[in-house]
Write a structure and sequence with these properties.
313 residues, SH3 type barrels, five-stranded antiparallel β-sheet, 8 strands, 16% strand
């Protein structure tokens, strides 16, 4: 009995191994039989990849030089290119996988649509915001913008996020949903940009004379726009001076021109006011020595100085 039981067990194990080997061989044979289909599917997908690249180049050639809407060209390129790739992928899947149809893929996605919607909510929101930004064009590549705590030059506008380069050379990637739903400042939206600085003159100086001197200095400054008149207005009584606000325009509103113009205007105004003997006062503190406690402190310090002792307050 033990010998027969052992023999039966061995026969069963051999049968199981044969079944496993047969299944493995069948899988290998099926894979080998599908290799030509996989190759054809890859070729088809690469073909559509090439069509997508040609489509992008054609759109850029036809619309890139004629249209002022550079962002709209990017929309056509990216959305159209992605659609072509998706069609190629679906055709390749139909060729490579037996029984695969686009309807089955849509049905499978429909089963988990709620879960997918929650998981990709932010992604879809950024994608939609990116398309809307590219279509509405509140800013373009090369514009200088301020978004929240970040300020810099727009380097690229993608479907999901926008990349800016800050003035200190840092790259910042901002989600498109933040740019679309939050306040945004575009410094280079218009060709001209107004700048201003505050200047103080002495209470004894004539305001109209100081105004004329400053305006003359601005007219002789190279970075100040000649298309718009600068202005000087008195804005308040400061602690040590009469406060004047100087406003002027520059023809190119990028950050480099802004910094250069402010420097040049400050240098010109300082030289002009000095040449006209108009005082630019600094804060002055007046000490009242009429108080007896102050006199006592002065006598104490003088006595210690006479004795070559360190002064103590």
């Amino acid at each position: 009995m033990p010998a027969e039981s052992l023999k039966t067990t061995a026969v069963q194990k051999v049968s199981e191994y044969q079944s496993m080997a047969s299944a493995g061989n069948q899988i290998i044979e099926d894979l080998v039989a599908r290799v030509p289909y996989f190759i054809v599917a890859l070729v088809v997908f690469m073909f559509f990849w090439g069509i997508s690249a040609i489509f992008k180049k054609t759109v850029l050639k036809l619309l890139g030089n004629r249209s002022r809407h550079a962002n709209l060209v990017k929309v056509f390129q990216r959305v159209g290119g992605a659609l072509i790739l998706f069609i190629g992928f679906m055709i390749a899947m139909v060729i490579a996988i037996p029984g695969f149809t686009p309807a089955k893929l849509i049905g499978a996605l429909g089963i988990g649509s709620v879960a997918i919607g929650f998981a990709f909510k932010d992604i879809f929101q950024n994608l939609l915001s990116g398309i809307l930004l590219l279509l509405s064009e509140p800013f373009r590549i090369g514009d200088q913008i301020i978004s929240g705590d970040f300020e810099g030059t727009v380097e690229d506008i993608k479907i999901r996020a926008t990349t800016i380069r800050t003035y200190d050379g840092t790259q910042v990637v901002i989600p498109n949903s933040d740019l679309y739903t939050s306040a945004l400042t575009v410094n280079t939206a218009y060709k001209q940009r107004r700048l201003h600085i505050d200047v103080g003159i002495g209470y004894e100086d004539d305001i109209e004379e100081a105004k004329a001197v400053i305006l003359t200095a601005l007219k002789n400054t190279e970075t100040v726009s000649k298309l718009a008149e600068p202005s000087v207005i008195a804005t308040g009584f400061g602690g040590s001076s009469i406060d004047l606000t100087v406003r002027w325009f520059i023809d190119d509103g990028n950050q480099a021109n802004k910094v250069a113009s402010i420097h040049e205007v400050i240098v010109a105004i300082k030289a002009a006011l000095d040449g006209a003997n108009i005082n630019i006062p600094f804060p002055i503190r007046t000490l009242d020595f009429g108080d007896d406690s102050v006199d006592a402190l002065v006598d104490k310090v003088a006595k210690r100085a006479t004795l070559n002792l360190p002064a103590q307050s």
